[in-house]
Design a protein that fits this description.
Helices cover 24% and strands 30% of the residues. It has a three-stranded mixed β-sheet with strand order 1-2-3.
Length: 83
């Protein structure tokens, strides 16, 4: 399973999101009635450098949560669910 699929599957467990987008694949903004939405972006990969024979890496990603109207109480609740 790819890291993109894993992140999408995990975000799909939050029932409040109407849509989940991988940031680089968005072609247009979500429709006004499609909120709240989650947009995730995958960042860089860094080696951990913990040994000569071991090469683990850490992969970073960010999740953006958008809602209309901008009800930050609901966004804060969604952030906690994502964590």
């Amino acid at each position: 399973m790819s890291i993109r699929q894993f992140i999408h599957d995990q975000l799909s467990t939050v029932p409040t999101f109407t849509e989940i987008y991988q940031g680089e694949s968005m072609l247009k903004a979500p429709e006004r009635g499609a909120f709240p939405v989650a947009v995730y972006r995958i960042g860089n990969e860094s080696p951990e450098n913990i040994g000569a024979d071991i090469t683990p890496h850490r992969k970073y990603f960010q999740v953006y949560i958008h809602d209309v109207p901008a009800d930050y109480t609901r966004i804060d609740d969604l952030v906690e669910q994502v964590k």
